[in-house]
Design a protein that fits this description.
The protein folds into three domains: 5-145, no CATH class; 155-334, Cellobiose dehydrogenase, cytochrome domain (Immunoglobulin-like), CATH 2.60.40; 347-562, no CATH class. By secondary structure, it is mainly beta.
Amino acid sequence: MAISVTSLLLLACFASELILEASSQRGVRLGSFRTLQHDVSGVVYAVDEKTFFIENFRFDGGGADVFVYVYRKGVEVDRRGGGISIYWSMTESMIPNRRFSGEDVTVSLLNRPNDGLLISDLRAITIWCAPFRVFFGTLDIPADRTTSLPPGLQMSYCIQPHEDLQLTIGYDDNNIRIRQCGCVEENEYMAFGISGDDTRTNMVGADVVVTWIDDDGPQAIDYYLTGRVQCRGGQGVCPDTLITEQTGTQDVTMIAGDVTNDQRCVEYQRPLNSSDPLDRNYLINRQSQFVVWAIGPRATEEGLMNLAFFHTEYPRNGENFMLDFATGTGSANLQCQADLQCREIPSCPAWQGQTIVAKEPTTFTVKIGLSGGLRGYQAITGLSGWGIAMYINDTLIPALRLERNVTYTFIVEAGNNVTDPSNYHPFYITDSIDGGIILDTPELRLSKNEQVYAGYDTDSNDPTAAGRLCRHVETERSGAVATNCNSRLEDYLDTLSVSCEGDESEAAILTWTPDENTPDVVYYQCANHIHLGWRIMFVDEVEGSGGANHMVPSLTATIVVIAIVKLFVL
C-alpha cells in the first residue's frame, strides 16, 4: 500500500516511553540489521517487553510474503523456519509490498497473540521471506540489553466504528492508551469516549477525547458534552476546562501524531480512573461499556478556534456501540475489517445560495433542517456549520433583500422545547453574524455589544419567537443527489420532506418593520445555536423584474469544495 507504517500502525506503538521523540526516549538500542538482500537496514530498539521500534527502516519492497520473524533463545536462526512471525499491524500479517526509504516504524508483539512472548525471550529479530526461506536482514539481540525492560501494555487491539475511523487501544495498570486514525481533512476532528448513558450510546453526558492535527502539531483535548449544542457560556460540546457547572481538568496526555497521504493519526493516554468529576472511568474488569465516536469539522473563526462543531459522521438511527476494554471484544459494528484505506476525494462545486427579494409586506416561513453538508451552509456562508440550518420559505439559508419601513411577518416553526437544546431554535434578528445570544455569558454579551432588532427581549433575556418544530428531513433520494457533483441546491431541496410536531396554532408569529436605524446588513439567527442563519440586506430601491417579491441567485461566490459531501441527520 502507498501509506506509511506509522499511519497503518493500528498496532500498539504504545510504550512506556515516548518513542517518536529523541533517540534516548526510544528505548534500549539493540543494534542494526545486517543487510543481506533487498537493501534491508534500520536501527532496532526495544521500547518495552512488547514493542520494537525500528529507526530509519529501509526495504526496496522486493520479494513475496515478507515477515518480521523472531527467534526464541535456544532456537537456531537458520533457514529451517523455527521462528515466529510477528504481525506488521493489527490486521496485516506481512510487511507491505512497497519501498521503505528511511521510515520510523513500530512493531508490537501484541499484534498477534504469542502465548505471552516477551522481547527478553528472544535471541534474534529478522526480515524473512517465507516462500523462499531467505533472510533479507538479521539482528542478534544482545541478552544483556533486555534484562530490565518495562513490561509494556497488557493488551492491544483494534476497533473500527466507521469506515473512515480506526482506533488501536491498549492499557496497563494505570492508563489507557488510544491511537485514533482517520480519513479526515485538515480542519476536521476525530472523537472517541465513554457514552453519557450506561444503557445505550448517547452523546449527552459523554466523556470523549477530541483529536486533530494542525500547524501546532497533534492535539488531544478532554471534552465533556452537556448537550447537543455548540460550546458557548460553558455549556454544550466543550473542553472539560470550559465547563461551568463543575470544574474539569485536561487529563489527556499527548503521545504522538502523524499525517500520511489522506490519513491523520493521533495517539494519547489518560488515566483509567480519574478524579475529574467530568471524566468517566474506563473499566478493565471484563465489563462492557457503551462508547461514542464522531468525525466532524473544527471551528476556524477567531474566538471559536478549534472547538468541535456538529459531527458529520457519528452513531446514527439509535445504533449502539459496546466495548469490553479489557479484552477488545464488543458489538459487531466495532470490528476491524482491514487496514484503514481512505477513499478518493472528488471535487464538487458549492451549491449556489439563493436570495429572496421582497419589497412589499411579505410573510415568511421559518423551519429547521439539514445544512446540506460541505456544499451547503459552510460553502455558502464561509462559516463553520453545525449540521443544521434555517430554511426560509423552504429554501436553505437564503439571503433576504428587504425594504425599510415595510412590515414583514415570520411564521416560526423551528422548535420550542427548552429541555431539548438540539430541537430548540428561537428565531431572532441581530447584527451578529454568529447568533446564539442565549449561550453568551454576560461578560461576552457586553464585549460583543450585540444589537438585537426583533425576536429577543434583551431586558428579560428571553426569546420571543420560538414555535413548534418543523424539520426538513432526508428521503431515500437525498444521499445520491447530494453526492452528485452536478446537482443543484434546488435538486437537493426537492428530495427533502417536511415533518412537523404539534398543531399549526403552536407556531410563533414575529412581525418586524425595519426602519432608518436598521443597518444595511443584519442577520436572522437562532438564539440557542451559532451559525444557523444568514444575512438580511437593505437597499433604497430593489432592482430586478419578476414582480414585487421574487427569488434570484445569491451573489455568494462559487467555491469548490475538495471533500466528500457528508450528509447530516437531525
